[in-house]
Amino acid sequence: MSILKVKNVSKIYTTRFGSTKVQALSNMNFTVEQGEYVAIMGESGSGKTTLLNILASLDRPTSGEVLLNGKNLTSIKEKEISAFRRDNLGFVFQDFNLLDNFSLKDNILLPLVLQRKPVAEMEERLTPIAERLGIAQLLEKYPYEVSGGQKQRTAVARAIITSPQLILADEPTGALDSKASAGLLHVFREINRDGQTILMVTHSTNAASHADRIMFIKDGEVFHQLYRGNLTNEQLYARISDTLTVLAQKAEGAQFPPECQFNRTDSGAGLQKADEMYVS
Ligand SMILES: Nc1ncnc2c1ncn2[C@@H]1O[C@H](COP(=O)(O)OP(=O)(O)O)[C@@H](O)[C@H]1O
Ligand SMILES: [Mg+2]
Q: Distance from the CA of 270 to the center of ligand 2, in angstroms?
């Protein structure tokens, strides 16, 4: 069953006086099936953040539609959007986006507090998730008292505690060292095995090689897709590298070797509005 349908989505940004237009997404089409784990790759400026913002209902397409479980995101009334987002989506950000003056436990429970869930239900949901993510002993600590990897696992707990339809992750390993990245990718693999649908934007070939499908976007369009099939992570890694090389060779005015083209960090802003997503 498709959980997400992106149909003919275009996004044109117009500058304040309407003089300049930027086509960030160009008639984009794809679907995501229930239970899939999809990575999205593409150079800086290819439209990844624009796409995530639209999927997160933080922004609206200029044309086309996005259906989440059959519901058209563009038809949701402005005042219902925060609640819709809270009830249906989970977010994992590059910079964790935890609230510094909340304990890890309170950070994780925040979406449930906003949903006005009874305390007993919150505790009931928290325990297995904290154990699964290996942070059960850290719940009374504050973000500044734990490592980056532990912060990111806390953010994943916050994202999955509402049992969202879909997790949207924007460079979730971007601020982690290789050991913490491996831990996070292991966690994503496990929650995906439990049935959680995940859409992850990443620059990291290693991170993408843990997903089951990789969508490459270029100039606001889906340029190519790779499916894992029976490939191991190592084999998929090699396929992704080859695809990135081809993509980079086709890029105009490429000045860097292919690996630099894709490993540099995005200059543009990512999905970084946790307060807006969970609180407003
Ligand atoms: N608010 C905006 N106003 C005008 N142009 C924008 C805006 N946001 C993004 N763009 C442009 O849209 C294109 C896609 O950007 P973006 O979605 O941020 O790409 P990515 O996340 O892949 O780096 C780029 O050309 C970028 O400059
Ligand atoms: Mg971006």
A: 5
Three-state secondary-structure class, residue 224: strand
List, as ranges, residues with CB under 5 A of the ion ligand 2. 49, 266, 268
Beta bridge partners of 72: 67
- Single pTM value for the model: 0.88
Closest protein CA for atom 3 of ligand 1? 13
Strand partners, 21: 14
**Ligand 1-lining residues (CB < 6 angstroms):** 13, 22, 24, 42, 44-50, 266, 268
Q: Is the dihedral of CA 214, 5, 193, 149 positive or negative?
A: positive
The CATH code of the domain that includes 29 is: 3.40.50.300
Instruction: Write the pLDDT tens digit of every residue in 65-116.
Output: 999 999 999 889 988 988 899 899 999 988 899 999 999 999 999 999 999 9
- Ligand in closest contact with the CA of 170: 2
Q: What angle do CA 134, 192, 57 make, to 5 degrees?
A: 105
Ligand 1 centre from 218 Cα, in Å? Answer: 12
Number of domains within the chain: 1
CA-25 nearest atom, ligand 1: 14
pLDDT digits (tens, 9 = 90+) for 130-178: 999 999 999 999 999 999 999 999 999 999 999 999 999 999 998 999 9
Give per-residue pLDDT as tens, 214-254. 999 999 999 999 999 999 999 999 999 999 988 887 765 54
In a domain, 266, yes or no: no
